Amino acid sequence: VAIDVAIACAKAVFMILLVLQVMGLGVFFERKVSAVIQDRIGANRAAILGFTGLGLINTLVADPVKFLLKEDVTPEGADRLLHFLAPVIAVVPAVAAFAVIPFGDVLEVAGRVVTLQAAQLNVGVLYVLAMAALGVYGVVIAGWASNNRWSLLGGIRGSAQMISYEIAMGLALIGVVLTYGTLDLQVMVRQQGELLWGWLPAWGILYQPFAFVLFLVAGVAESKRIPFDLPESESELVSGYFTEYSGAKHLMFMMADFVEVVLVAALVTTFFFGGWQVPWLMRDGFHVFGHVLAVPAAWIVVPVLQVTSFMLKLIFFTFFQIVVRWTLPRFRYDQLMRLGWQGLLPLGLLNVMGTAAVILVWGAKA
Amino acid sequence: MNAVLFVVLAALTIGAALAVVTNRNPVYSALALVSTLALMSCFFVGLEAYLIWALQLVVYAGAIVVLFLFVIMLLNVQREERALPAPGVVASVGAAAGSLALGVAFAVTRTSFASMPPVGAGYGSPGHLARRLFTDYLVPFEITSVLLLVAIVGAVVLGKRRI
């Protein structure tokens, strides 16, 4: 029993570290991609004890330190307890959602089969949606507890936006769930390891291209970043729901945003791009046109390749979202609502109906 | 479910539920309601009904109470003033609640839980629940949907007298 607990803890710690690493890379992309897109060099002047050698990397180290050392202000008339709790409530569900995302197949060590997923849950998809839904509270509470009209407006906008886009997100996922016939993310990823006609990896994007687009749009909207950053929109609301936050708490809100970006990347990878699958790699080696290229020391090399593949896909989609963020302008609020309710919602319903009709006529995929 | 865990969770749930009705600040009441629902969902985990657990979090904690908060903030509801209703109202509500509690307690003590057959494997899994819901219980399910629709229509009619 002690060993099982240790394994479970190790998996959870590994997953959290992986997320934080990718998040750090995300911040790096944010700085560098924005600089390149705007034809700048980017931040390169931070000196740590007089040392400026690493340029942007220095800035990335200095930034959080700066935040942690700043004065933590609670505004007058704010609700102290909720003002303190809001950033925590914003971060925790975003990180907790990673518990059900598989980062590898299985690792067999000393007769023990360890599934590379922090928590095996037969309702994984719903768990992810639940955590996404709980993330709203951080925004709403922050907006209300700050005793500031801009914050309150940001909080109200945030709650309306997140509820609207959660519906689109859920509808997109129904098509996916219909295709795979399961709510278990690990099973979904395993199914994507099959080969169509003996050579084409059966990734979700081939079955559910429309769901992919809908999910990606809804996911970006859920993470409240440009073009959907109406809850923040600094040109109208100063900084929206976290106007009145400084120091470490402000940092936590930014962290929650970035973790959500990584979460959307992880979900897109898991549902549509084969999760940890490496094309043609099975547990014993590469299967190419019926030939098997065995991999030496497969028990450890295959899982390492899978985790690497998962990380690379994660990094790619994080990068992609940051490019989107620095490319598109912000929506107007009415455009945002129209896109959610009159665009994504009916399209999502159509996708569900279409998928169901196909399954009814031609039978399920498996 | 572990008995100690059950007692602790039950105490916390009742505490949170009491906080819902005793708080004078509507935002705190709503947050206490979220806590109550989240804690209640823990009992479903104890029963290995993971689907119900997730649905409870998605639907109630994630959507409905957020809407409550949204409305509270939009209307800018202030702290409620302490004012007791007429003694007759208090007495009759108390009597109704008391008799309901007595009835539930009576029903629980009269039910023999040992005689219930064990549930089969896969009971409460998404597939099993969906099959029961859309075959055996289809009519009640659809009637509930119609009821919700009626409520929505009623809200629109009340909200927009002049369309």
Summarize the helices and strands and which ones pair or pack.
The complex is a heterodimer of chains A (366) and B (163).
Chain A: H1 2-37, H2 56-69, H3 80-96, E1 106-109, E2 112-115, H4 124-145, H5 149-180, H6 185-191, E3 195-196, E4 200-201, H7 204-207, H8 209-222, H9 234-237, H10 247-272, E5 285-288, E6 291-294, H11 298-327, H12 333-362
Helix pairs in contact in A: 1-10, 1-11, 2-10, 3-4, 3-10, 4-5, 5-8, 5-12, 8-10, 8-12, 10-11
Chain B: H1 3-22, H2 26-46, H3 50-75, H4 87-110, H5 126-134, H6 138-159
Which assembly state applies to the chains in this document?
heterodimer
Uncertain segments of chain A are none
Average predicted local confidence, pLDDT of chain B: 84
- Structural class call of chain A reads mainly alpha
Strand order across the biggest sheet of chain A?
1-2
Give the overall form of chain A: globular
List how many beta strands of chain A DSSP finds: 6
Most extensive interface between two protein chains, with residue counts: A-B, 27 and 21 residues
Helix content of chain B: over 70%
What proportion strand of chain A? 5-15%
Low-confidence stretches of chain B: none
What is the succession of H and E elements of chain B? Answer: HHHHHH
**Radius of gyration of chain B, in angstroms, nearest whole number:** 20 Å
DSSP strand (E) fraction of chain B? under 5%
Per DSSP, the total helix count of chain A is 12
Biggest sheet statistics of chain B: none
Counting helices, strands and paired strands, the structural category of chain B is mainly alpha
Number of distinct beta strands of chain B: 0
